Amino acid sequence: MNRLHAEGLPERAIRDRARRGRAAVFPPDDSYGRAVIGADVTSTATVDPLDAARLVPPVFMPRRLEKLIDLAREPLFGDVDLRTRVGGFASALPVYVSAFGSTQVGTELALAAGRQAGRLGIPLVVGENVAPTLGYRADSSLLSRLEAYAAELPEGVGGVVVQQSTEDADAEVWNQVHSDPAAAPLLDSGRLGFELKLGQGAKPGLGGMTMVGEDDADRLSDRYDVSGLDPRGGPRLRSSSPGTFTEEILAQQIRFMRNNFPRVRVWVKLPPGRDVGHAARVAWSAGAHAVTVDGAEGGSGWAPSVFLDRVGLPLGECLRRIGAPDGCLLASGRMWEAGRAVVALALGARAVGLGRAALVAVDEDPEHGLVNLVGALELEARLLISALGKYSPDALGGEDVLLPGSAPATAAEPSTVP
Amino acid sequence: MNDPEHPSPIPPLGEHLTSRTTRDIMLVQQEVLAATRDHLRGQGFVELLPPLTGPVTDPGGRGAKQLDVDFYGHRYKLMTSAILYKQASLRGFPKLFYIAPNVRAEPLETASTGRHLFEFHQIDVEIAGATRDDAMRVAEGLLTHVVAHVLERVPELLSGLGRDPVFFKELLRGGFGSRTHADAVETLRGMGHGQDAGTEIDWEGEAMLSHKADRPFFVTDYPKGSRGFYDREDPENPGLLRNFDLLAHGGYGELVSGSERQADYAAIVTGIRESGENPAKYGWYLKEAREGIPESAGFGMGLQRVLRYLTGMDSLWQVTAYPKLPGVVSA
Fold first, then answer.
1. Domain made up of A39-398: CATH architecture
2. Which of A297, A358, B78, B311 is the most buried (most CB within 10 A)?
3. Top-level CATH class of B13-319?
4. Per-domain residue ranges of chain A
5. SS in 3 state form for chain A?
6. ipTM attached to this prediction
């Protein structure tokens, strides 16, 4: 029974910190590996302009007329062609599966997600730290994710993108994959990519974090910072450095990737930093095939609660700051249905990444969950894009979106009707 | 054991070691080694024996993978090159060389270039206080001396291997030419080869340039991002490196790679980051750099590449006694 009460203060949270100390900076331990941490789970502060945006079809549709002429009949939503190129790969849909980290929630379901992404013919990103923490050839490791994906991949579409962050470079993840015979079919068919990771949406400015047991903690302590959190014991926090970047360091790293791996597509993942537009332009001008921007919307990694609530730009603001992209722009963060996805495409993204939603889907149905989720998204996307009088994602533009606070469009759309 | 997907061009080891060709090439090799030692020692160089393992090694480029060694629970690397140790040795040995064994898990597609081995040797030279031009002159002098020595001492071996001494006539006249990377890129594009201006010249491009020449030539000023962090950036031309390759004529491509070295501590740390690595693992080297590594220039000359060039063999595996090709399982 507590005697003292503090009106106006979050007393429960303070008492939690008084009991658990540094451990209370993070979500409760017992949710680790089960909860898919993210803005919708814990954040109360994030307001993403994408959520309030509306898609606004016009009445007059010259693009529909073009399609009508092409088809010699009235077009329908089934006539929307969703095939596109995503970061140097042909993709069946403007969708890819984003990286899951090395947290348990990622590894248990990653193989199922990889297989289904392959079946769908969409690109798959394999997360950082998978090799260094889990071993290059262990079950559920990088290689088995890659093989699971490639086994179901149809000819001519898709691609695997392997992330490496600063601390993974010690484990030479890219060099390992690049010279592994198992990766040769993907490399030879131009379907291997490497993603340079500058940060992530869940905790911009910080590196990767996972909770590890005592045995793993000892094994990892020579390469990572591993520290106890709860004064009463329990799992420990493994932290990576996010790496130091300047304009020059980013440009040189991209050039180095292109020099060392000339047959590999180069992707760059940016955190939702305030200079995201500038960083994206630096990456494209140094030769990146894709820039991925991850909104401050959570992820499958382990993030301090304060970062989920207060740090980083929401995805919609990232897209606004990037403006008209100079290259292939990919967007991820709380994607699962086509409403948010089509708005992101209209605001400049070439494709959207499914992260936590893909994990939840394969958790629901390990055989078909992701295929079904993407099937629903695909149908919605066709409905929405055709309603806008357009028949490919590339045709979408800012005129298709009403953002909160923006004045209703007054300019007339071009029309042949007086 | 043979991997059906990567059939080995290498005969069984016993057959390879007892063939007349292998024997003749090894006799040429010992002349190359003797001439190298004689020439460099005559110029005041000291030969050291290089380390085989260390906490870090040359990060290299072009996607070659390093090999780990368990050093009593610590992860060490087999040397891909001992460049960092060469720099660290300069305060005690201002002019030094190694005949250094190196191991690189090169990308699988290099197994058929004829120009890559998993295990190979470099004649590794470093000179304190030297400029790039100094290092280029030493490389030119060394190659010319080695070729002249072999032609003089064992001409019958070369002719037995089918090599006409006329092939080296222009080389022996001296005066290797030099062109910049940008110029080489332009030439290649003019020949219809899509060379990327921001990367090293690819193997096909090197062979094309090499075929056009009648003697070895230097290519200088490679762009930043195409080489290791230890190559010094040109302060007068930011984005270009004070480095060089020496390419053989006749389609044999690169024999030597060298540069003026980066000796400034902050520039080294920044360079490590620019090549995507975590400086923490370069602990011992950065400590040396912080205390002051002498400015220097140097190079590595591929021993097997020089032998192939001398003997006219198709592939590097033919000029080594114990060949190992990338990804090909052999003895």
1. Alpha-Beta Barrel (3.20)
2. A358
3. alpha beta
4. 39-398
5. CCCCCCCCCCHHHHHHHHHHHHHHHCCCHHHCCCCCCEHHHHCCCCCCHHHHCEECCCCCCHHHHHHHHHHCCCCCHHHCCCCEEECCEEECCCEEECCCCCCHHHHHHHHHHHHHHHHHCCCEEECCCHHHHHCCCCCCCHHHHHHHHHHHCCCCCCCEEEEECCHHHHHCHHHHHHCCHHHHHHHHCCCEEEEEECCCCCCCCCCCEEEECHHHHHHHCCCCEEEECCCCCCCEEEECCCCCCCHHHHHHHHHHHHHHCCCCEEEEEECCCCCHHHHHHHHHHCCCCEEEEECCCECCCCCCHHHHHHCCCCHHHHHHHHCCCCCCEEEECCCCCHHHHHHHHHCCCCEEEECHHHHHHHHHCCCCHHHHHHHHHHHHHHHHHHHCCCCCHHHCCHHHEECCCCCCCCCCCCCCCC
6. 0.82
pLDDT tens for chain A, 418 residues long, are: 567 888 888 888 888 888 888 888 887 766 666 666 555 444 445 678 888 899 999 999 999 999 999 999 999 999 999 999 999 999 999 999 998 765 555 566 888 999 999 999 999 998 755 555 555 544 447 788 888 899 999 999 999 999 987 766 666 788 888 888 888 899 999 999 999 999 888 889 888 787 777 777 777 776 678 888 877 877 888 888 888 999 999 999 999 999 889 999 999 999 999 999 999 999 999 999 999 999 887 665 678 888 888 899 999 999 999 999 999 999 998 899 999 999 999 999 999 999 889 989 999 999 999 999 999 999 999 999 999 999 999 999 999 999 887 654 444 444 443 3
CB contact under 8 A, A252 and B61: no
Domain definitions of chain B by residue range: 13-319
Measured between beta carbons, the chain A residues lying within 8 angstroms of B62 are 259-260
Give the residue on A whose Cα is nearest the Cα of B76.
A170
Chain A neighbors of B224, CB-CB under 8 A: 252, 255
